[in-house]
Amino acid sequence: xxxxxxxxxxxxxIIGAGIPVSRYLRAIAPALLFLGLSTLTLLVSFxxxxxxxxxxxxxxxxxxxxxxxxxxTALLFVALTTPxxxxxxxxxxxxxxxxxxxxxxxxxxxxxxxxxxxxxxxTAQSARLGYAxxxxxxxxxxxxxxxxxxxxxQRAAALDLAASARCNDGSxxxxxxxxxxxxxxxxxxxxxxAGLIMIALLPx
Length: 204
Description:
This protein is about 75% helix and about 5% strand.
């Protein structure tokens, strides 16, 4: 029943949260590719007679695939519907160390800095025909890696300098929004979670 849980969570994410199907598929495609390759290794066995498909391996692969798909869809539901600041606020309420949360914030921020730097440099290289052929592509790729490394390092140093200029010697804090229907939403979430657990526990 894990596959049913994964399907239900995916529908809730796409229909309930309004996530475009194309965006959802782009986000889940790498995980599904890795899951497919991993499942393939359980479907076959190698012996003296060659490659054989076993029924036990098929059942094990189906169970593993369903559980992994349910986990991936649940993770994507949180990632695509919950702002990072709210996740950090919850983790801070759970008394996680401030140092760990600060590292998560800075790492999350640097992901966007890295992506923006790669996009800008690659656009400039493409405008100069940097990827016109294989030899030029290899050269442009090396220059891209070097330029991105330097640019991200400089932006990280600028971020640290800006924090020091504001006398920030403690943990990073963010304003937590107040929701008027928080209790109702919590009750709905608990009921939905209980329903998914019941579906997962149903006999096949």
